[in-house]
Amino acid sequence: MRLLQGFAVAALLAIAIVAPQPASAQATLDTPGIAVTDNSASYIAFLVTAGASGAPYGFTVEWMPLADYNLTGWPVDGYPVPGFNYCTFDGQPTFRVTPGVFDFLLGANTGARIYLGELFDETGLYTTYLDELSPESQYVVRVRAEGGPGFNTSLNSGTLNASSGTHEVCRFTLGYWKNHPSVWPVLSLSLGNVVYNQAQLLLILGQPSLGNGLSILAHQLIAAKLNALLATPPAGIVSAIAAADAMIGNLICRPIPGWGSLSPSSVNSLSIQLDDFNNGKTSGDDCHPTAARATTWGRLKTLYR
């Protein structure tokens, strides 16, 4: 009898040894790296690179103005601090897409570009901040890989300092035009073959794209056309504006009743070309204000600052 009991105890010990460990015992994910790759007056672009264990559930980027960080540091135990924002990237982007990377669930040593300040029209994320960044401003940023059911979230990366860029005197982003309707040089614009008044255009600018390529393109086209009235754009941008109008054609832009759609991939190249123009990043764009618009762009510059 005692011999049988011994065998039973041994069997139980063996089962305990080979039994799978609970999910909470999963190894902590490697901390991703983050580096600045580009900037403009309205955004800072970063390359987030997963470690050897990847970021299979996506990653979270946190940021705040340097001045606020110097006063409070990063939040502790979720306690809110001034200026703090975050974005969890865990789905599929449709605007600023990294070639060869189809979603933010990163494999080992895989990198994805993200654009803080251009999240309004992006998808595959959840964020506390959809506005553009302030021009000529300093920020601190950090990143971590998100864990799954095993709560194996990585440690936060070290704190990275990053700055937004300067702006041109007569190139302004869609965020600027959306928030300063009183300085528009015209009160109506055509998008494709359809003419919209300013109230309709502001409605269009106020709606995130939600993955609708027509909205992505329309947002940049509105800003580009307004900018083109302040100073003559380079020939390449004139052609891009014409190509965007041709692509939109008779489609109505969201949220105007009867609105249509385009695939994000079909508008991606044109949208980014116009976005670069609106951010003052187009090569060869000297941005000399048109004489007839001198007063207008001067008012714009004063209000922008």
Explain what this protein looks like in three dimensions.
- The chain is an alpha+beta fold and 305 residues long.
- It contains eight helices and ten strands.
- It has helices at 2-18, 66-72, 174-179, 198-205, 213-230, 235-248, 264-278, 294-304, and strands spanning 33-39, 44-49, 59-65, 85-89, 111-116, 125-127, 138-145, 160-163, 188-191, 194-197.
- The strands form three sheets. It has a five-stranded antiparallel sheet with strand order 6-4-3-7-8.
- A hairpin with a 2-residue loop joins strand 9 and strand 10 (194-197).
- Helix 6 runs antiparallel to helix 7 (264-278).
- The longest helix has 18 residues, at 213-230.
- It is globular.
- The chain starts with a helix and ends with a helix.
Give helix and strand order, one letter per element, not per position: HEEEHEEEEEHEEHHHHH
Strand order of the largest sheet: 6-4-3-7-8
Oligomer: single chain
Beta fraction: 15-25%
Largest sheet: 5 strands, antiparallel
Distance between the termini: 89 Å
Number of helices: 8
Helix and strand content put the structural class at alpha+beta
The average pLDDT is 89
Compute the number of strand runs.
10
Radius of gyration: 25 Å
Low-confidence stretches: 1-24, 292-305
Helical residues, percent: 25-40%
Q: What would you call the shape?
A: globular
Write the layout of secondary structure elements.
Elements: H1 2-18, E1 33-39, E2 44-49, E3 59-65, H2 66-72, E4 85-89, E5 111-116, E6 125-127, E7 138-145, E8 160-163, H3 174-179, E9 188-191, E10 194-197, H4 198-205, H5 213-230, H6 235-248, H7 264-278, H8 294-304
Antiparallel strand pairs: 1-2, 2-5, 3-4, 3-7, 4-6, 7-8, 9-10
Helix pairs in contact: 5-6, 5-7, 6-7
